[in-house]
Fold:
Amino acid sequence: MTMATVQTEAKPIVNRTQALVWLRQMMLIRRFEERAEMLYQKGNKIGGFFHQYSGQEPVAVGSIGVLREDDYVITAYRDHGHALARGVSAKAGMAELLGKVTGCSQGKGGSMHFFDLEKGFLGGHAIVGSHIPLAAGVGFAIKYRGEDRVCICFFGEGAMNQGSVHEAFNMAALWKLPVIYIVENNLYAMGTSLARSSAVTDLTLRGAVPYGIPGVSINGNDIELMAKTTREAVHRARAGEGPTFIEAQTYRYKGHSISDPGKYRLKDEVDSAVRNDPIVVYQNILKQRGWIDQEAIDRMHESVKQEIEESIAFAEQSEPPPLEALYQDITVAPYIPQE
Ligand SMILES: Cc1ncc(C[n+]2csc(CCOP(=O)(O)OP(=O)(O)O)c2C)c(N)n1
Structure:
């Protein structure tokens, strides 16, 4: 089992302003989840499933960071990071976790179902692999309308074993749909390692080669490499050249979900990943470039903490959805029970 370590390219692929925005976004995602975990565990303020993204932040921030505002993003249930990277506010995210009407899904989605149409963030999907054919549908709609938008579709390596995923890859390749498939290989699907569930562990061999899709396997914890690779894929998609498959090697620090103590992996393995924390590594890289100093990093941390505390206050003061919301936004005609 190999674990990705950060080795950002010698030559920056972004300017200082962009790099600092990305650093702050990664910090924001990390802090958002740290505080949400406390609210879940100690405050009993959050219910339902809750999957943390800690450790994987560069994958979302680096890739979504190169999109245009009118592009689309779709992902699975481990969605907090993707939503925040796409510009969903911490307030709207926190309120969603607390089940409040001011949440990004009006308090009816919860952790696994963040959604924000205005930001082109199409969820948050809980059934493993279910959104991957949806991404092909989004790509088809883009092409049908003659637009040059793209859709990034994130999923875990466990989803690669779903049959419909392969049907979707085939159609996306056949019709040259503008979809960028990013598989976040964090080595485990719940408690099962990739090597125990897949006869072939090189994901590009399974996700790209059979369908004629260009595929690369990269260190997903290297934010600038993530951005560079995605930018090339976006370029191809906009030019009508079809999908790209990117395997982003990464690692999740927490258990599969908040109720998973993660007994299937050694403490040493987790500790070694945390020691190479990609956020700290990126901070150091930016320091070496002379783009930020420790004082500014500390100030950034403080402003992130404040933003998250404000989001919690906002969520706590918000109202739960009204009773009639139960019958709104459902896919069948509204059913209103008679007295
Ligand atoms: C169709 C389906 N089967 C099983 C599950 C239960 N389940 C939830 S998450 C998960 C593991 C998925 O792992 P992976 O795709 O690698 O994503 P990660 O959790 O690592 O981000 C499983 C089996 C489910 N939600 N949907």
